[in-house]
Amino acid sequence: MGFSKRFLLDLAPQVIATLLGYFSEMKPCQKCIKPISDDQVEKAPRCDSCRVFFHLECSGLCASEQRAIVVQRRIILFFCEDCILSFKKIPLLTNKFVQLEEQIKSLKEEIEVIKQQNLQTVGATDIPANMDAVIYEMQNRADRANNLVVYGVPKSNSRSLQQKISDDNTALLPLLNDIELAQDDIVKVLRVENWQKDNCGNFSEKRGK
Ligand SMILES: [Zn+2]
Ligand SMILES: [Zn+2]
């Protein structure tokens, strides 16, 4: 054997027995790990699932079972303890497998739904348009935030537009002191009454008034 003793001792006995069985002609007993002699091999029970050998006395079989197992054309199967423990877990594992299959199926469906939603969101063109509208509205509100509306300011009698604007500015001066503003704070004065908005949104003075 190529294995050192130290290496073999570190392994579980069952693993060693299985390895020895695979790599050599020697048939070790899965229970006691000692070799099964040539004259014992004929009668040594072998697990019908994992194919490991046992000494007759190590197999845990009673005398009548031993006789039945050793018979050449036997109909009784022999399974080692490890395999029997594994078999007992099969119904449980089968159930878990079915559950896992169902979970995977529903997860796949959820992923498909999310994928579709993502595609629709990315493909939507109304989002940039909405964003533009929102930004425009925000700018517009910021621009109008300092607007001041003054009612009942006497109308100028002048025919000149420049004079009318000048008169409106002058009329506002007494008010500026009351609200602690200087003349420099006024960007533009518009007399709303005399202005109309055309189809393009531009303001112009109403004619004939
Ligand atoms: Zn044995
Ligand atoms: Zn077995």
Can you offer a commentary on this structure?
The chain has 209 residues and is mostly helical. Among the domains are: 5-82, Herpes Virus-1, CATH 3.30.40; 147-205, no CATH class. The protein is built from seven helices and four strands, in the order ααββαααααββ. It has helices spanning 5-10, 13-23, 38-41, 63-70, 81-123, 126-144, 161-178; strands at residues 27-28, 35-36, 195-197, 203-205. The strands form two sheets. A two-stranded antiparallel sheet has the order 1-2. It has a two-stranded antiparallel ribbon with strand order 3-4.
- Major beta-sheet overview: 2 strands, antiparallel
User: Given the helix and strand composition, which structural class is it?
Assistant: mainly alpha
How do the strands of the widest beta sheet line up side by side? 1-2
Overall shape: rod-shaped
Please count the helical segments: 7
N- to C-terminal distance:
119 Å
Helix content: 40-55%
What's the level 1 CATH class of the domain at 5-82? Alpha Beta
User: How big a fraction of the residues is strand?
Assistant: under 5%
CATH fold-level assignment of the domain at 5-82:
Herpes Virus-1
Tell me the CATH architecture of the domain at 5-82.
2-Layer Sandwich
Kindly state the mean pLDDT as a whole number? 79
The number of distinct β-strands equals 4
Radius of gyration: 49 Å
Which residues sit in consecutive blocks of at least 5 with pLDDT less than 50? 1-6
